[in-house]
Each structure stands twice: as structure tokens, then as C-alpha cells.
């Protein structure tokens, strides 16, 4: 246990020292070639044929989110009710079994 | 969580979620992207909740691993499943936005790569839970802790490397630069968080009931 | 721990089979990525690392098999040694095995893909060693945990690849930066630093979780 603690502590200390250094290295390297992207990319560089109307995509996105959320809620509800049915059944059987035993 | 809080939270969550599009529709248009930018109101909260779910799963797993608490394990299982669900939301809305904004469905840049890795890890967790057999709970707990360790790399990847994904700093700036966008964004985030809490409570309850059924089965067999 | 290393080094079975698998991996890839007598640009780095990852997985599978067969794992865990020492012994065994395999694979890739830099640039060796450590730390932990599970051989790659993907990406990108016509040492150093970060995080986590995971 002692050895685990020792090794773990050393490693965590090393991590605490190294992680900012590594991050700094990453920052230093990256900032030179090109500043990080701060704004959204404009779309006007695309050829006109490649541009799609936004509305269908947006509606598709929202529809999928709604479907996923309610679909998932529905599966939880179904699984929960089936498990609760099992539970009722079992506790009834357990209740029946007890007086006989 | 007791019955009344749960019912109240579900109603609040669903109403907020249902009302969100109304407010989003009234929000101002982003200057360069126009309409498609509005995916952002579901995309970003989706990822926020996904990260939160991964953290919940990781911390609950750590508690299970070091303190042997089955309840924490059930919470972790529920949170992992929700992480996959909200990850799907993020992964679906992202490409739909990218098709319009970048002209491609998918781009191999660090943020997207790391997100899909995180989603993969959480899917591996669920596969392990389902097919791992007895004793896989500790293994799964370790996996969840490892997934949590991955989150910082995902989050900072976009800031450290040059990339075409909008930086995370866009969101905090919104409060100042575009209050008209910030309102609906906060509304959506809160709606997602409330929904997440409700789903987490329901899913954990399901797992608890399953454990109860298991226990009763064993008790009956012993009779 | 020392005993484990000795047994491992004696068992030529592991070394020879893993080595053979790694070599055949490289050959399979060379058929896929050589067009008209010329290798596809930048294929060498990817092939090197994929061969390493695949043979590493193969090597990890039976790490704890010996113990399982003779039910010696229980004995090993009951022995008055610390759990971390058991972990470190296995871990060192895997790292050594992977290094041995890499020596051969690196030379082979350098020969077959006209990339002599692989054997000449010390930074590639650094990247490979860092990759070994991260891969072996996660791999040893998962292999140990999977010993008792039914579908071990299926689950190990399923769990191992998503977790170690970041390390693999860093390794491939760093190596590719060095294999360019003009090696980009700065970029390779950045990837090596990232790999080091991953190693530290993963090894710490593996050490911390090995203890409670192996306790029944």
C-alpha cells in the first residue's frame, strides 16, 4: 500500500508540473502559425452549387433531438413499467410463499 | 429523489424543452451564417450535458470502486447511458451544422476526433455492462474513470490546436456581445440540465428496481 | 516481480508469436498501401503504429493466462507482495515485449517503405517508448481485470482501443511529422509532450485502480 501511495503521489506531482508545461508548449507552438479560430467560418467561399438551404437542416436537427429525447424517455418508461410489473409479481409470490413456508 | 420533486422537475423540464424553439425562433440571426447557426442552441447544451454525464459517471464509479457502494454504481450506469444519448444529440446536430457552415459533413479535426473517442468509450462502457457478465461492474467503473480523464483533453483540444471548430470562448462572450442570443442559450442549457436530472433519476430508479428484482429472485430460489 | 520478468524472458513462445504477428501485419499493410511500386505518402507512420497496437493487444491477451490456468492469480494476490508490485512486474514485461517487437518492426517498415529516418531519428524511439508505456499501462490493467470475464478476447480490444486512441493519434502524428521531407521537430516535440501527459495520467490511474479492482 505504501508503495502505491508513494508512486501515485510522485506521479501526480509529476503530472501537476508537466501538464501546464505541456499545455504551454502546445500554446506556444500553435499561436505562431495561425491565431486560434474565434469566430464562425463564413460560408460565402463555397461554390453556389454546394450551398444548401439551411431550413431543412435546422428542422432535421431539431426533429432528431426531439425524437432522441422522447424516444429515450419512452424506453425508460417502458423498461421501468415492465420491471415494476416483475417486482409486483415477485413480491406477491414472496408474500404467498411465506405463510406456506 | 421523492415523487413530488420528480414530477415537478419533469413538468418543468418538458415545458422548458417544448418552449425553447419559440424563443430560439425569435433570437437574432448570426451575421455570417444566418439561420443554420440556430442549431447551436441545442448542440452546445447537448455537449455540456454529455460532459456532465461523463463526470457524474466517473465520480460515481470512483466512489463505487473505492467505497463499495452499489448505489453509486447504479448512478454511474445511468449517467453513462445518458452520456451516450446526449453524445448522439451532439454528434447528429454537429454534422448538420457543418454541412452548411463548412461545406462538409465531417472534418477530422481535434475537437470532433476527441468527441467521437469519448462517445466510443462510453459505448464500450455500455457494451461491457451488457456482455461483461458477473464482476464487470468494477471493470466498468475503471473505464468510466478513464473516460472522465479524457474530458479535459477533449475540452482543451479546440483551444490548443488550430482548428476550424468555433472556440469554446465564443459562449462566455455571448453575454456581452449578443444578449439576444445569450438568453435562449441559457434557457436551452437549463432545460437540458433539468431533463438530464429527470432522466438520470428515472434511469437510476430503473436500475435500483432491477437490483431489487434480482434480490427477490434469489430469495425465492432459496426458499 | 523479478521472477515474472525472468519467466517472461524465457518464454520465447510469446516473443516469437507476437513478432511473427507484427511482421505479418506490416506485410498485409504493405500490400494495401503500395501502389505501382511506390508506397502511399505518409503511410509508414500509420503502419508502424498500427502494427505496434495490434501486436501489443496480442501480447496482452495471455499476460495473465498463465496465472489463470494454474489458478495462480489467487495465490499471487494472496502473496505478501504489494498489488502495485504485481502490476509493475506485468507492466514491465509488456513494455519489454513491445520494445523488442518494435525494434524489428521499425527496421522492417524503414526497409519496405523507404523511410530510413525511422531507424535514424532518436525522437521516433522516444515517441515509441512513450506510446509503449501508455499502451502497456492501460492494457495491463484491463487484461488483469478481464481475467475472470467470459468473453475476454473480445472485450480487451473493445475497451483498449478507444481509451488508447489519443495516445495512438499522438504517436502517429508525431512520427508523421518526423518522416516528412523536412522533419518538423517542433511539432513532434509537442506530440511527445502530449503523449507524456497521457502516460502520466493513465499510469497513475492504472496504479490507483489496480488495488481495489483486484480485491474481491
Structure characterization notes:
The complex is a heterotrimer of chains A (101), B (223) and C (216). Chain A has two helices and no strands. With 101 residues, chain A is mostly helical. The radius of gyration of chain A is 29 Å and the shape is flat. In chain B, 82% of the residues lie in helices and 0% in strands. Chain B has one domain (3-222): Four Helix Bundle (Hemerythrin (Met), subunit A), CATH 1.20.120. The longest helix of chain B has 44 residues, at 179-222. By secondary structure, chain C is an all-alpha fold. Chain C has one domain. The chains are: A mainly alpha (101), B mainly alpha (223), C mainly alpha (216). Chains A and B meet through helix 1 and helix 2 of A and helix 2, helix 3, helix 5 and helix 7 of B.
What distinguishing features does this structure have?
heterotrimer; B: 223 residues; mainly alpha; Four Helix Bundle (Hemerythrin (Met), subunit A); 7 helices; 82% helix; globular; C: 216 residues; two-stranded antiparallel sheet; 2% strand
In total, the number of domains of chain B comes to 1
Largest interface: A-B, 45 and 53 residues
Quick one: biggest sheet of chain B?
A: none
* Overall spatial form of chain B: globular
The description of the largest β-sheet of chain A is: none
What Rg of chain A do the Cα atoms give? 29 Å
Stretches with pLDDT under 50, minimum 5 residues of chain B: none
The number of strands of chain A is 0
Number of domains of chain A: 2
**How much β-strand is present in the residues of chain B?**
under 5%
Amino acid at each position: 500500500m505504501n508503495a502505491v501511495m508513494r508512486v501515485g503521489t510522485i506521479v501526480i506531482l509529476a503530472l501537476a508540473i508537466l501538464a501546464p508545461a505541456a499545455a504551454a508548449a502546445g500554446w506556444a507552438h500553435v499561436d505562431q502559425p495561425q491565431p486560434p479560430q474565434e469566430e464562425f467560418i463564413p460560408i460565402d467561399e463555397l461554390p453556389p452549387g454546394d450551398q444548401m438551404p439551411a431550413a431543412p437542416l435546422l428542422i432535421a436537427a431539431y426533429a432528431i433531438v426531439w425524437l432522441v429525447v422522447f424516444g429515450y424517455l419512452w424506453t425508460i418508461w417502458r423498461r421501468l413499467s415492465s420491471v415494476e410489473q416483475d417486482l409486483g409479481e415477485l413480491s406477491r409470490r414472496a408474500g404467498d410463499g411465506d405463510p406456506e413456508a | 429523489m421523492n415523487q413530488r420533486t420528480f414530477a415537478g422537475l419533469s413538468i418543468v423540464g418538458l415545458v422548458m424543452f417544448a418552449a425553447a424553439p419559440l424563443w430560439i425562433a425569435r433570437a437574432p440571426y448570426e451575421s455570417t451564417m444566418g439561420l443554420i447557426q440556430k442549431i447551436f442552441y441545442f448542440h452546445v447544451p447537448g455537449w455540456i450535458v454529455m460532459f456532465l454525464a461523463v463526470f457524474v459517471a466517473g465520480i460515481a464509479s470512483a466512489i463505487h470502486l473505492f467505497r463499495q457502494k452499489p448505489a453509486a454504481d447504479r448512478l454511474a450506469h445511468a449517467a453513462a447511458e445518458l452520456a451516450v444519448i446526449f453524445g448522439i444529440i451532439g454528434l447528429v446536430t454537429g454534422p448538420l451544422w457543418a454541412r452548411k457552415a463548412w461545406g462538409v459533413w465531417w472534418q477530422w479535426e481535434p475537437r470532433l476526433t476527441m468527441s467521437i473517442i469519448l462517445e466510443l468509450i462510453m459505448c464500450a462502457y455500455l457494451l461491457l455492462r451488457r456482455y461483461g457478465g458477473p464482476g464487470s461492474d468494477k471493470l466498468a467503473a475503471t473505464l468510466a474513470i478513464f473516460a472522465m480523464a479524457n474530458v479535459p483533453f477533449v475540452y482543451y483540444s479546440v483551444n490548443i490546436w488550430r482548428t476550424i471548430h468555433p472556440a469554446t470562448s465564443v459562449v462566455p462572450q455571448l453575454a456581452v456581445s449578443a444578449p439576444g442570443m445569450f438568453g435562449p442559450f441559457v434557457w436551452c442549457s437549463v432545460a437540458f440540465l433539468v431533463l438530464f436530472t429527470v432522466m438520470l433519476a428515472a434511469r437510476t430508479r430503473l436500475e435500483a428496481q432491477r437490483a431489487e428484482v434480482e434480490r427477490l429472485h434469489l430469495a425465492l430460489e432459496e426458499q | 516481480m523479478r521472477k515474472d520478468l525472468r519467466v517472461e524472458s524465457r518464454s520465447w513462445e510469446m516473443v516469437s508469436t507476437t513478432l511473427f504477428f507484427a511482421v505479418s501485419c506490416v506485410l498485409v499493410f504493405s500490400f494495401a498501401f503500395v501502389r505501382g511500386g511506390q508506397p502511399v505518402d505518409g503511410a509508414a507512420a500509420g503502419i508502424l503504429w498500427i502494427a505496434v497496437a495490434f501486436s501489443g493487444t496480442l501480447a496482452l491477451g495471455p499476460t495473465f493466462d498463465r496465472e489463470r490456468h494454474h489458478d495462480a492469480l489467487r495465490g499471487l494476490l494472496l502473496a505478501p507482495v504489494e498489488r502495485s508490485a504485481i502490476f509493475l512486474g506485468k507492466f514491465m514485461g509488456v513494455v519489454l515485449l513491445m520494445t523488442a517487437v518494435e525494434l524489428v518492426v521499425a527496421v522492417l517498415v524503414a526497409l519496405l517503405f523507404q523511410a530510413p529516418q525511422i531507424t535514424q531519428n532518436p525522437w521516433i524511439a522516444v515517441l515509441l517508448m512513450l506510446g509503449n508505456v501508455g499502451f502497456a499501462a492501460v492494457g495491463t490493467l484491463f487484461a488483469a481485470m478481464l481475467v475472470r470475464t467470459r468473453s475476454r478476447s473480445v472485450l480487451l480490444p473493445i475497451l483498449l482501443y478507444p481509451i488508447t486512441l489519443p495516445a495512438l493519434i499522438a504517436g502517429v502524428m508525431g512520427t508523421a511529422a518526423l518522416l516528412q521531407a523536412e522533419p518538423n521537430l517542433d511539432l513532434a516535440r509537442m506530440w511527445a509532450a502530449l503523449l507524456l501527459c497521457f502516460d502520466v495520467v493513465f499510469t497513475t490511474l492504472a496504479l490507483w485502480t489496480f488495488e481495489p479492482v483486484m480485491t474481491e
